[in-house]
Amino acid sequence: MSGFRARGLAFACVALLSFVPATARGEGVIVALGDSLTAGWGVAPDEAYPARLEMRLRREGYTYRVINAGVSGDTTAGGLRRVDWVLHASPEIVIVALGANDGLRGQSPQAMRANLEAIVRRLQAAGARVLLAGMRVPPNYGAEYTTQFQAVFPAVAWSAKVALMPFLLDGVAADPRLNQPDGIHPTAAGHQVIADRLWPYLRPLLGQGK
Fold this sequence. Notes:
This protein is of the alpha/beta class. It has helices at 5-19, 36-39, 49-60, 76-81, 83-87, 100-104, 109-125, 143-160, 188-202, and strands spanning 28-34, 64-70, 93-97, 129-133, 163-165.
């Protein structure tokens, strides 16, 4: 998930600049802050789960724009550096879906937790509601590391009192029908599953947009 970082960052910048005026049109803003799993590596922009969520919101009668702020290769440390940039969009809700690259690089779960807590605090201080999406690493990283890694997300959610989707890739991970040949990045169909599984966690955070 470390490739094409510059392309992902450029795409996210364009997305933010394009959608910032949404609030002036009476639309709420949701930002998906993540890595290549959010950016939609290997699929078309309108096939990535943030775009799928916006389609669902429109169908359900909610006037929200969903900004894809996914950057390929990003870690929780990178996400923390981008928080102020994300806040320029004045989001009502931010989906924080980071940590996969921390795990793939074997980085400290304690450092990852500190980064996520800082991200959430800054978003909350700006008035945004947060949905945290958990991540997992393969068992070959060792039982101790995988347990500590997975425990970070509920710990952050509990401490900050934010909504938690336990696993972003629920129903998608390890299913060859829903993943590209690398076995990591979802196909368009996989992104649809992510959007569908995210919806029950996102729905309670929405304002009265109908």
